[in-house]
Amino acid sequence: MNRAPPDNPNVVTSVASILADVQNRGDQALLEMAERFDEVVLKGLEVPSSAWKKANNALDPRVRAALERAARNIRAFHETQVPDEVSLDVEPGVRITRAWAPLQRIGVYAPGGRAAYPSSVLMGVIPAKAAGVGEVLVCSPPGPSGSPPDEVLAACAVAGAD
């Protein structure tokens, strides 16, 4: 099935320009785009885990308890999803095996903007960790402070993001 052409060729051109700029200039391009699109001046792109813990400690205790409860439930469910290794001798000298092999690293996007979505962090990070992913990084747009909302940062701490 062929895909319909984009409605607006200017969008394709604009996106291609952004991608090329990031490929060529890396983090510097991203920092400039944060200022241009998000109207926030960033010192860097990484929020240290100490800020996640600080945000978690500053949360309303009821919100923190809700995040922790949701995390427990999500973890309990997804830990049951990891399949056991199965081997079968299909004929003499021939064994087949289904083995589980998690990815080494993944990224989770937590939307932002007008609202905080800590549930996106929990539902992305926790299943990946339960599956055995070695490193789970979270990306979320900055608010006016230059950092994602405290609820999103706290969810990173609760979920065990890297």
Automatic annotation (TrEMBL):
Q: An example Gene Ontology cellular component term from the record? A: cytosol
Which keywords belong to this entry? Oxidoreductase
- The question of whether Zinc is a record keyword is answered with no
The molecular function terms of the Gene Ontology recorded here are: histidinol dehydrogenase activity; metal ion binding; NAD binding
Name the Gene Ontology biological process terms. L-histidine biosynthetic process
Q: Which InterPro entries match?
A: Ald_DH/histidinol_DH, Hstdl_DH
* The keyword Oxidoreductase is annotated on this UniProt entry: yes
Q: What is this protein called?
A: Histidinol dehydrogenase
Per the UniProt record, the source organism is: marine metagenome
The opening ranks of the lineage are:
unclassified sequences, metagenomes, ecological metagenomes
